[in-house]
Structures are given as structure tokens and as C-alpha cells.
Amino acid sequence: MIEQWNPDGPRSEQDLYELAGALHASVHAGASVSFVLPFSLDDAQSFGRHKVLPGVRNRSRIVLVVRGEGEIVGTVQLN
């Protein structure tokens, strides 16, 4: 199911962790998403907390997520 991510929803902290995991895995798989190795999970979590979250809250960024069995399995961001 595709949905717009709610940064203030009941799963927001878990979602931030899952979004960071998806970003981290993508970078380590060679995705060209503006990050280079070395790129730690802490780096991904920091990006989510300091760039993604404020952008969603101030409406300059939209995050769409795909959930599978309740967890985020895919995402796209629109700036």
C-alpha cells in the first residue's frame, strides 16, 4: 500500500528508523542518491531527522512510503 508519510503519526519514530534503513541499504547497494561510502546507519538517521522530518513538517518535502507487512519496504521523496 502506498501512502503519504505522516511524521507525527503513532509510528513516526519507527518509520524514521525504517526510512534510514532503506536509505542506508540503497547507498550500500550502489544507488545514486547523493551519498557516497562510507555512509553509516547513523548518517542515514541523521539525514532523516535533520533534513527529511523538517522538510515534511514545513511542507517543502513529500515522502511516500510503501508498506509490506506493516514495515516500510519502499519510499520516494518529492522536494
What does this structure look like?
With 79 residues, the chain is an alpha+beta fold. The protein has one domain (2-78). 43% of the residues lie in helices and 23% in strands. It is built from 2 helices and 3 strands, in the order E-H-H-E-E. The protein has a 3-stranded antiparallel beta sheet. Helix 1 (12-28) crosses helix 2.
Give the uncertain stretches in residue-range form.
none
- State mean pLDDT (0 to 100 scale): 96
The number of helices is 2
Largest sheet: 3 strands, antiparallel
- The side-by-side strand order for the widest beta sheet comes to 1-2-3
The strand count comes to: 3
Radius of gyration, whole Å = 12 Å
How many angstroms separate the termini? 21 Å
Order of helices and strands, N to C?
Answer: EHHEE
Query: What shape does the CA trace take?
Result: globular
Strand-pairing-aware structural class: alpha+beta
- Which range best describes the helical content: under 10%, 10-25%, 25-40%, 40-55%, 55-70% or over 70%? 40-55%
Strand content: 15-25%
What is the number of independent domains? Answer: 1
